[in-house]
Amino acid sequence: MAGRPPQGAAVSAPRILVVRFAAIGDCVMAAWAATALRRQFPEAFIGWAVQREPVPVLAVPDLVNEVVVFDRRRWKNMSGPAAFREQWAQWMRLRQLNFDVGFDFQGHSKTALALRLSGAKRRISTRATDALARTLNPPAALAGDVTHEVDRAMAAARLISPLETPERPIMPNLDAEVAAFRAEFPGRLITIQTGATESVKRFAPEKWAEVAAGLVAPGTQIVAVGGPGDPEIPHDQVINRVGAYDLRTSMALVAASHLHVAADTGTGHMAAAYGVPVVSVFSKNRPERFRPYTTQGRIIHGGMRADDSDPADVIHAAQELLEETCASSS
């Protein structure tokens, strides 16, 4: 889309900016508010400023009209003024889009700067994690219980219009990929995400093997997933696909599952977004703020490290969810 749009967007078609750079799971949580805005304003232009990694999660035409990528990982590896020129071009792209309102759902100085330089006529920030962010965009006063990230973003979005929290956000349509995985793994499919970004969030492979052993049953297939460098599960009845798929394909495998099990990481939020029951093993982060946003979820929180949790508790929570799912579908 070239050029600067005309001034004065209609109330029924506001130009809305979402700023949430990372991480993947946090972008999924922000998608609930973006979905509510899209449903309230079907003709709105919605732009999203984001780092490159989460793009496959939110580059959905039904949700976002334009994704403006802030490729911070690439820029950190560049020398001289080239990185600044590229970043400046993205800031100016935001400005060209002439937003009526912009939301910063992250509140870091980097996202605050993007929102401020966008020139949005109204700027709404859900928090400020540093002094610069607080100066650029003072956090808005939000009503209601805003403990969870989804509820906080929804409270911010309600500052421009009464909105209902959607049951699930708009996500990429993966029907074909899901059907292919269900054909490949017939019966009950349980996926286990083995990795996490931080060491304190990682559940040891041996503990995942205990979980898998407790969930093995006739007609059940257990598939381990993860990114490059994540560990495989050392169990002979686990199908290890760790590192085998890109983000979109991994997301499809999670969406095809009857149950997903993970540490506090992005795939748990993907499962919630696709309506897949999920067991999450938490560590240092507060579950009440970061848990997958679903009624079909269980949280295991044994301490400040994921490894403080007992595999037996994970197995019990998983079995409970599977029983509930079977009961509700019968």
SSE succession: EHEHEHHEHEHHHEHEEHEHEHEH
Percent of residues in beta strands?
15-25%
Q: What characteristic shape results from the CA principal axes?
A: globular
Number of helical stretches of at least 4 residues: 13
Strand runs, count: 11
* Unreliable segments of 5+ consecutive residues: 1-10
Rg on CA atoms, Å: 21 Å
Written overview of the protein:
The chain has 330 residues and is an alpha/beta fold. It has 2 domains: 143 residues, Glycogen Phosphorylase B (Rossmann fold, 3-Layer(aba) Sandwich); 154 residues, Rossmann fold. The protein has 13 helices and 11 strands. The strands form 2 sheets. The protein has a 6-stranded parallel sheet, with helices on both faces. Strand 2, helix 2 and strand 3 form a beta-alpha-beta unit.
Descriptive tags:
single chain; 330 residues; alpha/beta; Rossmann fold; 2 domains; six-stranded parallel β-sheet; five-stranded parallel β-sheet; 15% strand; globular; disordered N terminus
